[in-house]
Design goal:
Number of domains: 1
Number of strands: 8
Strand order of the largest sheet: 1-2-3-4-5-6-7-8
Structural class: mainly beta
Largest sheet: 8 strands, antiparallel, barrel
CATH architecture: Beta Barrel
Radius of gyration: 13 Å
Helix content: under 10%
Length: about 110
């Protein structure tokens, strides 16, 4: 299994292309991601080139709906992706049956690792 622990730049696919979203810290089964607007805490697992993360997302500002919602106090999310060299590319969903999803990619920041 490839060691994926480190610091990542998180990007979200928006209407104008890939946008910076946050900085993620992946280490020893724990996933933490934060920006000035939100915080995500969860756990992850790596298996056969796949990456699975489950956590809670809290947004501190009112300006951006995510997953079709404005109020994101402790919103549970699941991210599934594939690992390609120093990039984890995938999709995040809310596990309540909602069809809303967001494309994310995590780019490893080698100068910080």
């Amino acid at each position: 299994m490839k060691n994926i622990e480190g610091v990542y730049q998180v990007e979200m696919l928006g209407p104008y292309g890939w946008e910076r979203f946050s900085t993620a810290f992946i280490r020893e089964g724990e996933f933490r991601s934060a920006s000035a607007d939100h915080f995500t805490a969860g756990t992850y697992d790596v298996e056969d080139g796949g990456f699975q993360m489950e956590g809670n997302l809290t947004q501190y500002v009112d300006h951006r709906p995510l997953f079709g919602r404005k109020n994101l106090k402790e919103l549970p999310i699941k991210f599934s992706g594939r690992i390609h060299d120093s990039v984890i590319d995938g999709e995040a969903r809310v596990p309540d049956g909602s069809r809303n999803s967001l494309r994310f990619r995590l780019n490893r920041m080698p100068f910080l690792n």
